[in-house]
Amino acid sequence: MSLHIPFDNSYAELPAGFYTRLNPTPVKRADILAWNTPLAEELGIEGTDPTVFAGTTVPDGAAPLAQLYAGHQFGNYNPQLGDGRAILLGEVIDQTGQRRDIQLKGSGPTPYSRMGDGRAWLGPVLREYVVSEAMHALGIPTTRALAAVATGEPVYREQGALPGAVLTRIAASHLRVGTFQIFAHRGQIDELGTLTDYAIARHHPDADGPLGLLKAVCAAQSDLVAAWMSVGFIHGVMNTDNCTISGETIDYGPCAFMDAYHEGRVFSSIDQMGRYAFGNQPRIAVWNMAQLATALIQLFNDKEQAVEDATAIVHAMPGQLQAAWLRRFGAKIGLNDPTSDDQSLIEDLLTLMQTDGADFTNTFANLHTDQARDQFTDRDAFDAWAERWRTRGPDMDLMRRTNPEIIPRNHRIEAMIEAAVAGDMAPFERLMMALGTPFDLPADFDDLRRPPTEAEIVPATFCGT
Ligand code: AMP
Ligand code: MG
Known about the structure:
By secondary structure, this protein is an alpha+beta fold. It has helices spanning 37-42, 50-54, 122-137, 177-186, 189-203, 209-230, 281-297, 303-332, 340-356, 360-365, 370-373, 379-390, 396-402, 410-421, 426-435; strands at 3-4, 19-21, 31-35, 46-47, 65-67, 71-73, 76-78, 86-93, 99-105, 120-121, 144-157, 160-171, 233-234, 256-257.
């Protein structure tokens, strides 16, 4: 089959200590389950060859490698992580002039696999495909999904033997806080400097030096996390190795969109302490930036001054996040220019929602109708709130443009995966179709707006990688 990918690789030109070159491991079959035609066009990819996206064939122009990085996992530093089940095939310059990574995930073991098998099963692959594309349709920065391919090989997990799959992930880059941490912790200052220059040139060309980069990443992460909050998204594993320099959402593991609103909501089965609970995400984003700051400080001779400057940047982030949050939630209730008074208006609504377990998405999508009112048991309290709100003159058009009518609900994803495992991709296709236009959902997808019934609730998500 003919495939042309216009590779233009830059990471492979960095010093050898940044990665290990190796090919993906060939697999038995290569059955395309999903292919993202518009994205392929955006990337300038012509034709297709499933064996490339299964990792069996290395395409012309690729420079396959596994990237090295470290990271704090649940607050504890792990001195070496790296791509344990992913291979960067290379980069392309897309139609808009942006450099993008093409990475296979689930493509076999690497020197960084530690105890893992380097593989992924169909469930997490399709979950990431659906959720990352939904995120993109919501207008939130994210890695994208180009292809999902079934390998025809079993992958063994707690549940037993499961069908193996490979995801092709597209990213602005895979640079993360952990990429900086590994060189800083090892005292490899030359590499740290090279990485910093590379990251500035690739992502934040206006940034002035390491502290300029820190400032730019703090801004990007503030916007990102505020955007997550505004759609009820819980990332689930905000470790520093899953925190990008580009400001894209990455690594859809045990992530989930909330149904009933609760600030303390946690889905991930491994997050016992609730470190990455919904309402903690802004604090964790700041914590992650403090780790980036700690790494970047190593580049300075005058450490005392660098610490002072970096601290000021990180300390400014909660304010940036708060401002981004207010803009996002202000728009959700129809206010273009929310004031600090509106902050309490929004918070009061969230408190009512939390008390009644109101559905996050549907409450905002229907705020101007009785359907929202019906979400509340204390109707008087809601009516009193709504009266305050109406005096602010909310812009209904803004609300329609801002509040999605559909999010990838967990129970739908689980049902989609179950069907796919049984060979039925129809629920996947339907979900993808509906999630493609979240602000203008055709009536035949109305059933997908419905929150889960008691029996349908998915209480936890598993890394189950
Ligand atoms: P994650 O939680 O997906 O961000 O992964 C954390 C680290 O574990 C990364 O270094 C991954 O490459 C590695 N990892 C996760 N699952 C596997 C697997 N099945 N095989 C090898 N490495 C893995
Ligand atoms: Mg990761």
